[in-house]
Design a protein that fits this description.
Blueprint: H1 15-22, E1 46-54, E2 73-79, E3 86-87, H2 94-97, H3 110-127, E4 135-138, H4 146-150, E5 156-159, H5 163-170, E6 176-177, H6 183-193, E7 196-202, H7 211-221, E8 222-233, H8 235-240, E9 253-254, H9 257-266, E10 269-277, E11 283-290, H10 300-312, H11 318-321, H12 323-343, E12 348-351, H13 355-364, E13 374-375, E14 393-394, H14 397-402, E15 406-409, H15 415-421, E16 431-434, E17 440-442
Parallel strand pairs: 4-5, 4-7, 5-6, 7-8, 12-13, 12-15, 13-14, 15-16
Antiparallel strand pairs: 1-2, 2-3, 3-9, 8-11, 10-11, 16-17
Helix pairs in contact: 6-7
Length: 443
């Protein structure tokens, strides 16, 4: 059984959104104002989960700033009753979040690099991407992906707003522009470099406060007959897996296939295929083309996933309202475990300093009274402190030096990679702990 795309997806945006477009706010919506959907402009009345207040998850604390207060912002995820886009408020402009000293570098995960290489091979095989085509990646980070196209002598361009991360890509020989992406940037890049045969955006769609400007820019940047692919965490997996820690200020939107199809259709882009991926706890890879391009038929997987989501209820508010209580139970279970082992005199440390870990620790109120320290493979984080919790970050060798009883894996989506890298903790009886969806201990 299949379902047709709701006609509302191609309808004009409500007057509230048009009004906001004419009078864009220079910063965030003020708390006193009624929050409105960043896609369709409808008022937001339904809560998915309220995680209290939290600092920016990538705003790591330097030693000289340890005794200074941090700004805290509400972390309240709501769902739109019209288009069912789940979203948090934008309390800061994007350039205050993704600034020149951003600490996230994709290349420090071997799992993610392998994923990027497989993607390159797949695109080359399926769409015939070669030296005659032009590949552009939006939010290209440190060149983790484009380097594999460059190896095949395929012309590439990265667009990455964080200056230090873009510099890392340039050091690999990858032409990278330090810009935020939207309609204006798309017009500038398309007129200077040309439109993209293959346009890529991995884990960026959730990060844009103005989703209409961003997707409108994709439409401009994509060559007639070109292919656009985007990957993002799947809202279904977030809810089913209690992945509340993936909610943070840098993630403005949380997307089901049902909603993202409506957004892209509104901007003249048709989703012609979709894949479900295991990355980041469960992601989607969507394939898009211009709506006027009939050369690529819509695959059966599109209708199948759309219908499956509808049958689960993603286009009804009751689907979302039970999540908040499930999150509270996950919090209680983690705190009960930590209290029990600390009372028994055991030592607990963390592995990783990801954004999701900071949401988890701050929502649960976990500080150095429960977690002695954490470690990370990214040297840019060593010597810093986690935002909010002020837990110190060290090199992974610190675990082998101190021999803790438990290692709490904060980037739980990489648990297999981490448990393999740190397998030697079993020599002293160390055990791994995964906090999501419910606390689990592994020997």
């Amino acid at each position: 059984m299949t379902a047709t795309l709701p006609t509302a997806s191609a309808a004009p945006l409500p007057a509230a959104t048009q009004k906001n477009r004419r009078n864009p706010l220079p910063h965030a919506v003020q708390p006193a104002m009624e929050p409105r959907c960043r896609f369709c402009g409808e008022a937001l009345h339904t809560t998915l989960v309220d995680l209290g207040t939290s600092p920016l998850c990538e705003d790591f604390v330097r030693p000289e700033d340890f005794n200074r207060a941090e700004a805290q912002y509400p972390l309240h995820a709501r769902v739109c009753g019209s288009c069912f886009l789940v979203q948090v408020g934008d309390f800061l402009p994007a350039d205050k979040i993704f600034r020149d000293e951003y600490c996230y570098f994709s290349s420090y995960s071997t799992t993610w690099l392998a994923h990027a290489r497989r993607y390159t091979e797949q695109m080359v095989t399926r769409f015939g991407i070669g030296p005659e085509e032009f590949v552009v990646e939006v939010a290209s980070n440190d060149g983790y992906l484009l380097q594999y196209f460059l190896e095949r002598d395929i012309p590439v361009l990265g667009i990455e707003p964080a200056g230090n991360v873009a510099d890392a890509a340039r050091s690999k020989g990858i032409n990278t522009l330090s810009k935020f992406f939207g309609r204006r940037t798309a017009q500038e890049v398309a007129s200077t470099y040309g439109q993209a045969d293959l346009l890529i955006g991995n884990n960026v769609l959730a990060h844009v406060p103005d989703i209409n400007d961003f997707v409108g820019g994709l439409k401009i940047m994509l060559k007639p007959g070109g292919v656009l692919t985007m990957e993002f965490p799947h809202l279904l997996r977030l809810i089913e897996g209690r992945q509340f820690d993936t909610i943070y200020h840098e993630h403005f939107s949380y997307l089901s296939f049902y909603t993202v199809e409506r957004i892209f259709a509104h901007h003249g882009l048709t989703l012609f295929d979709v894949e479900e991926l295991p990355t980041h706890g469960g992601s989607l890879r969507i394939y898009a083309r211009h709506a006027t391009d009939d050369a690529r038929p819509v695959e059966a997987r599109v209708a199948e996933l759309r219908q499956r989501e509808i049958e689960l209820g993603v286009n009804t508010l009751p689907f979302y309202t039970a999540f908040s209580e499930a999150v509270k139970e996950t919090k209680r279970a983690l705190l009960s475990f930590l209290i029990e082992v600390k009372r028994a005199g055991k030592t607990v440390v963390g592995y990783g300093a990801p954004g999701k870990g900071n949401t988890l620790l701050n929502y649960c109120g976990i500080r150095t009274d429960f977690l002695d320290y954490t470690v990370d493979a990214n040297p840019h984080k060593h010597g810093l402190f986690l935002p909010g919790s002020r837990i110190p970050i060290y090199h992974p060798d610190r675990i082998r030096q101190t021999r803790p009883d438990f290692v709490l894996i904060l980037p739980w989506n990489l648990r297999a990679e981490i448990m393999q890298q740190m397998a030697d903790i079993r020599q002293w009886g160390g055990r791994f702990v995964v906090p999501i969806p419910m606390v689990a201990v592994y020997d």
